[in-house]
Amino acid sequence: MAVAVVTGASRGLGRALARALAEQGWSLVLDARGAEALGAVAAELDGPVVVLPGDVADPGHRAELVSAARGLGGIDLLVNNASVLGAEPLVPLAEQSLAGFAEALTVNTVAPLGLVQAALPLLRESGGAVLNISSDAAVEAYETWGGYGATKAALDHWSAVLAQEEPALRVWSVDPGDMRTAMYAAAVPGDDDSGRPLPEQAAVPALLELIGSAAGSGRYTVSGRTVKEWTR
Known about the structure:
This protein is α/β, with parallel strands linked by helices. It has seven helices and eight strands, in the order E-H-E-H-E-H-E-H-E-H-E-H-H-E-E.
C-alpha cells in the first residue's frame, strides 16, 4: 500500500487531499499544529492513518513524521502543504513585520526542505514524489502578497534544483489556483470569496490526476479540474 506524508492536513487543501488519498487506499501520515482539528480529520478516514500534531519547523517533529512513515512501509509521496502568511491580514511590504516574514520563510521554505532531507532515503528507495504546494503569488506581483509570495518563489526554486539533483524522483511545485479556504479569508478578510471553489472541487481532483500520472518534475498550475505545466 502506498504511503503519503501530508503536512498542514487539519483544514483546507491538506484536509481535502488527505481525505481523497485515503479514499484511494493510501496509508497516511498527517501533520498539523492543532491536535484537536487533526484528530477530527483522522476520525473521518478509513485505512492506516497516523496523526502527529506538531510544528514542521521543529526538526524533531520532522523526524517523527519520517519515522511514522517508515513504520507504514516507506514514503511514496511527500506533500509539503503547511504554510503561514507572515501577516494576517496581509500588509504592504513597508508594513511587513520582519519577524512574521522570518516565520513564513521558516515554515513555507526552510521546513519543507528539512522534511525532504529527512525523507530522502525513503523517497529514493521508493522512487517517490515530492509535491510542494506553491502559489501564483510566487510568480506574480500582487500588492500585499510580497512576503508570502517571496517564500513560495524560494520554494519553487529549490524544487526545480532538487529535481535536477534527484532525477530518480518526481518533484512537483504546484499552484493550486483560487480556493475558498480559511487561510485566504485570513489573508484578505474583506474579500468576497464565495465565488471561489472549495479545495475538493478543483484543486484536489487536479492533484490526484498529477499524482496518478507519469508527469515529470516541474512547476504546474491547476486549471479547472486538471493541471498544466506552467509557462510564463
